[in-house]
Design brief:
The complex is a heterodimer. Helix content of chain A is about 0%, strand content about 55%. Chain A is an all-beta fold. Chain B is built from no helices and eleven strands. Chain B has strands spanning about 5, 10-15, 20-25, 30-35, 45-50, 55, 65-70, 75-80, 90-95, 105, 110-115. In chain B, a hairpin with a 2-residue loop joins β5 (about 45-50) and β6 (about 55). The chains are: A mainly beta, B mainly beta.
């Protein structure tokens, strides 16, 4: 069975500093994809970054990077130079490449950026 | 490009009544998803369509929930009869395909309150 764990219900970060949001996963699927989404208080889910299980390099998208450690089954999101607009819920998600590509989400981490 | 459209934005009904949600995915997206997001939790997949066929509905409470995607474009999700525990945000998402590396694009969701 697949499982996503986000152990930080809430995180605080000072504006302009970097922050790491933790995500660990469990799967028996040999191939899978890992995603991070942002959900502001307005409710929409915004795709941030993707990492494939066979990708050799960590994914980066602007201020977002994914610290992928396959042996430890972790896929932490790093946000550099935090901005006030980064305050939101962040969800880690995983999709296996077999079994219909079903996507599962973690419980989320609420990030608060302080001025 | 236009995003995923959902309606209504909010809905309040009494238990045992019926309700329907509508979703129009991004043009050209073959895969459509319905998620249920209970307050404080991550989204849970209810049903996934590939064109107009069902790929996964293992977590859809079929005694009360139904969904269809006629002509492989728009989709409707229905609840009949509604229970108190159905209070949640119902998110529709779409992706180009069902491949493991395809990010999902979400609509704004429908917030359902059951009295």
């Amino acid at each position: 069975a697949q499982k996503i764990t986000q152990t930080q219900p809430g995180m605080f970060v000072q504006e302009k500093e970097a922050v790491t949001l933790d995500c660990t996963y469990d799967t028996s699927d040999p191939s899978y994809g890992l995603f991070w989404y942002k959900q502001p208080s307005s409710g929409e889910m915004i795709f941030l970054i993707y990492q494939g299980s066979y990708d050799q390099q960590n994914a980066t998208e602007g201020r977002y990077s994914l610290n992928f450690q396959k042996a430890r089954k972790s896929a932490n999101l790093v946000i550099s130079a935090s901005q006030l607009g980064d305050s939101a819920m962040y969800f880690c998600a995983m999709r296996g490449y077999t079994g219909g590509f079903k996507t599962i989400f973690g419980a989320g981490t609420r990030l608060f950026v302080k001025a | 490009e236009a995003g995923v459209a959902q309606s209504p934005r909010y809905k309040i009904i009494e238990k045992r009544q019926s309700v329907a949600f509508w979703c129009n995915p991004i043009s050209g997206h073959a895969t459509l998803y319905w998620y249920q997001q209970i307050l404080g939790q991550g989204p849970k997949l209810l049903i996934q369509f590939q064109n107009n066929g069902v790929v996964d509905d293992s977590q859809l409470p079929k005694d009360r929930f139904s969904a269809e995607r006629l002509k492989g474009v728009d989709s409707t999700l229905k609840i009949q009869p509604a229970k108190l525990e159905d209070s949640a945000v119902y998110l529709c998402a779409s992706s180009l395909g069902a491949g493991g590396n395809q990010p999902q694009h979400f609509g704004d969701g429908t917030r359902l309150s059951i009295l």
